[in-house]
Write a structure and sequence with these properties.
Blueprint lengths: L3 E5 L10 H9 L3 H9 L5 H9 L6 H9 L7 H10 L2 E10 H10 L7 E9 L2 E5 L7 E2 L3 E2 L1 H9 L4 E6 L5 H4 L4 E4 L1 H10 L4 E2 L3 H11 L4
Parallel strand pairs: 1-2, 1-7, 2-3, 7-8, 8-9
Antiparallel strand pairs: 3-4, 5-6
Length: about 220
């Protein structure tokens, strides 16, 4: 059997809602205007996220409670298990922060899943990002360069699958052996002539991998 890995984006791919929207809707209404400016190109992605995450102003217990309220694709835990049972390694690759990702993985009892993301921590009632500009995966725009991570994993594995849903995922999609695309990512990849398999959920992803014989 091939040495393979499945790499997934988190916000909007594993989770059904981006964490930054939860923060904006719950605690930071001004973020609606900031979002428009970000989409208009006035802010880098990482600068937008840093400002939103530092505008929560809640104790950590409340923040964790909010994190755990984020809905995820119900099929994700069993899909990860299927990947691991069939000799694959599962990774999460996110331009958000590992702070909330680890809380959710622990909540759902998901183990042995390395997370590539921007380091995050709680301090003074907010979530802060710790960005290392000297890190090998550093990106000025996103904090983490997803393409570099996928390229590095391709040196280790014969086959690297990727799943994503939005613009930051269009870059690693060009490097992965096969990309599963949700939502806006589908149109972006079409426009860029990048091949992909369109999906709505991880149930669709698993069905495809079973048809390929990757998962049995």
């Amino acid at each position: 059997m091939e040495n393979w890995a499945f790499v997934s984006d988190f916000d909007g791919t594993i989770s059904k809602k981006d964490f930054y929207w939860l923060v904006i809707e719950s605690y930071y209404p001004e973020g609606q205007e900031l979002y428009k400016k970000w989409k208009a190109g006035e802010y880098q992605d990482i600068d937008f996220l840093q400002q939103v995450f530092q505008s929560i102003d809640q104790n950590e217990e409340q923040i964790i409670e909010d994190i755990l309220s984020l809905p995820i694709d119900e099929h994700v835990p069993s899909f990860i298990e299927a990947v691991q049972e069939n000799g694959g390694d599962f990774y999460i690759l996110s331009a958000g922060t590992d702070y909330y990702i680890h809380h959710i993985l622990n909540h759902y009892g998901i183990h042995d899943v390395p997370v590539f993301s921007n380091k995050g921590y709680y301090e003074n009632q907010n979530v802060h990002l710790s960005i290392d500009e000297n890190h090998k995966h550093y990106s000025r725009r996103y904090g983490i360069d997803k393409s570099k991570v996928i390229s590095e994993l391709k040196e280790k594995y014969d086959l690297v699958y990727f799943a994503g849903d939005s613009e930051p995922d269009s870059h690693p999609a060009k490097v992965a052996d096969l990309t599963f695309a949700k939502d806006a990512l589908q149109d972006i990849l079409k426009e860029n002539g990048v091949s992909f398999i369109g999906v709505e959920s991880f149930k669709d992803v698993e069905r495809t991998l079973r048809e390929k014989g990757t998962i049995r």
